[in-house]
Design goal:
Number of helices: 3
Shape: rod-shaped
Radius of gyration: 56 Å
Distance between the termini: 161 Å
Helix content: 40-55%
Order of helices and strands: HHHEEEEEEEEEE
Strand order of the largest sheet: 1-10-9-8
Structural class: alpha+beta
Length: 241
């Protein structure tokens, strides 16, 4: 009986330890699988974290590049707007409009038609606002030269209130010798003397313009080349001021 009991206990213990061993082995395998899966998860998380960091860095770089591009485009747009405004202002300054455009067109037509630019400028300069002026006086005098000292070399206006005289350079013949008359292509000197002796001078190539004020009256003179030796004078007398 004791032997049978012993065998039974031994077989029982053997089965227990065999089962325990299997369980332990299963637990070890299960634990190993769990640890492996955990480690794989950690590695995946690490890899995903690295990937996310790289993607975040790439997105940050793209954001910085886009911000720089936007800043450059904004600067370019502002520069373009400034240039456009400058061109508009220049266009308004330099391109005539309204009455000025109409006058510019007329001047262009006259120049294309062969009118001398100096003559056209003279005509425009003569245009004045309407004033309560007396009828213009037209006279002429012989311009003095080194060879012409005699003759009618001065004229008076306004009841001898203003006297006009002058001198010029002698013309030359084809041989280079001086003539008695002046050369209208050379500068002349026109002297305007008011009553009392006050004198003003206009110098240059004819035609010339000059104005003086004497006794509350403004005398506006136009000097042009006339017949040989002569200067034509047109005087307007207007109240001043």
């Amino acid at each position: 009986m004791s032997l049978g009991r012993y065998d039974y206990d031994r077989r029982y213990r053997r089965r227990f330890w065999a089962r325990f061993g299997k369980f332990a082995m299963f637990a070890v395998v299960l634990l190993g699988v769990g640890l492996f899966a955990y480690q794989m998860g950690i590695e995946q998380l690490k890899g995903r974290d690295v990937t996310l960091r790289e993607e975040n860095a790439a997105l940050s770089r793209q954001k910085a590049e886009l911000e720089l591009l936007a800043s450059q485009m904004q600067h370019a747009a502002k520069t373009a707007e400034a240039k456009s405004a400058e061109l508009d202002a220049r266009l308004q300054r330099e391109v005539p409009t309204g009455d000025l455009a109409r006058l510019a067109g007329l001047i262009g037509e006259r120049l294309k038609g062969g009118m001398d630019a100096n003559r056209l400028a003279f005509v425009i300069a003569q245009a004045q606002p309407v004033r309560n002026c007396q009828q213009p006086e037209n006279k002429r005098f012989a311009l003095a030269t080194p060879l012409l000292k005699t003759g009618n070399r001065a004229v008076a206006f306004g009841n001898n209130t203003v006297t006009v005289s002058g001198e010029g350079q002698a013309a030359r013949n084809p041989q280079g010798a001086q003539e008695s008359w002046f050369d209208p292509a050379q500068p002349v000197t026109i002297k305007v003397t008011a009553i009392g002796g006050k004198q003003t001078v206009a110098t240059g190539v004819l035609p010339l313009h000059h104005a003086v004020v004497v006794d509350n009256a403004e005398y506006r003179f136009t000097f042009t080349a006339g017949a040989r030796s002569f200067v034509e004078v047109t005087a307007d007398r207007c109240p001043f001021p």
